Amino acid sequence: MSDTMIAPSGRAGAAETLNQTCDCSVTDLSRLQERIDRITQTGQSIVETHPNLFSNVPVFLEPHHFAQMQAVVRAVERVVKNESFRKAVLADVPAIASADASQAGVFLGYDFHIGVHGPRLIEINTNAGGAFLNVAARDHQIACCNAADEYLARLPGSKQLESSILAMFLREWQLAGRTSPLRCIAIVDDAPATQYLLPDFLLARQLFESNGIRAHIADTSELKRVDDKIVVNGEPVDLIYNRSTDFYLQSAGTNVLRDAFERNLAVVTPHPKAHALYANKHNLAVLSDARMLAGLGIDAEVTDLLVRTIPPTHKVDEGDETWWTDRKAWFFKPENGYGSRGAYRGDKMTRRVFSEVVRGGYIAQELAPPSERIRTTDGTAIALKVDIRCYAYEGEIQLMAARLYQGQTTNFRTAGGGFAPVYIVQTT
Predict the structure, then answer these.
(1) How far is CA 230 from the centre of its chain?
(2) pTM for the model
(3) How many CB atoms lie within 10 A of CB 289?
(4) Which of 178, 226, 321, 393 is 20 to 30 A from 404, comparing alpha carbons?
């Protein structure tokens, strides 16, 4: 059982009480699955291929916790616009990240754990997946009790969320200096047909095409350069929605995507520069260090907020064996990792794994344990860990979703886990 979350009054918060005791089901999974199957038309039901993609229980959040999360997103945006910060973080990444790019980058993902001292920002991602899936889920979420009723009634429906997503892509198009209509988008990844979040891509394609924009789902290697145009399936592409985790486009299969970005042959979003500025995990060492932030000229208010919210983070120097002694207090992540791959809790780490970590290329982040969502099924209480993802654009949170799981890191293998709605509890 997690530590009880404490509200500013010193009492347990209403949200945490509900997270520990509420057994309501709020997502109509059968109707949601029917909707996704109808749109994606893969020939297999998502129930068969992704049985643990969605949870049917809500996660409750205190209003002041949401306010802090939004403030942190805005604070990070302010730091990223600081020229000293940009110069510092771009100095240690591949040269492609220094290419001109005026577009902001779609679907930044800010991942928070809610602890005894409130939200802790554990990670920022530049190609955060799942947004289209969570938009599809919105119309199939219901108010499970009075605590959620008023909040849910004010939430935008899926059509409104889809409009805001479309507006985001159109803004990327305009920020890149384009004035002609956006006609064709390529959604690219490495072997997208084999990706677990393929339904997310299919929902994205349906959204674009229903709004008059042609859309293709393609492997990065399927992009072709014809003269000064990027072509996929014989059709010129205006914008590339980049879901590849080759963040700096260094593999042979990304040659054309790299040309598209460096030569401005198509608008690429998110792009290598956005990853370097936001999602390079080494940046967390800067954002969590008051002295470093002050040295970059970041004001005291922003610095205080970030240092309170981001767990202390440090680079693991190659060969530094001293980490072994204190490992239980830290979480180790590869600097250029993604999707929890190669990440380890120190107290679960073997000597063999530790020897790999101290070869270099890792950061250590002070443990910020997640809260728990307790669900009782057939008289048995099941504790699911909670990670809250905020999808953000230009400093504003567009959409929130919780990920419920068991184990060291988020996954979609836990029965009863998966994406879950987040309800902000309105207290009087």
Answers:
(1) 28
(2) 0.93
(3) 19
(4) 393
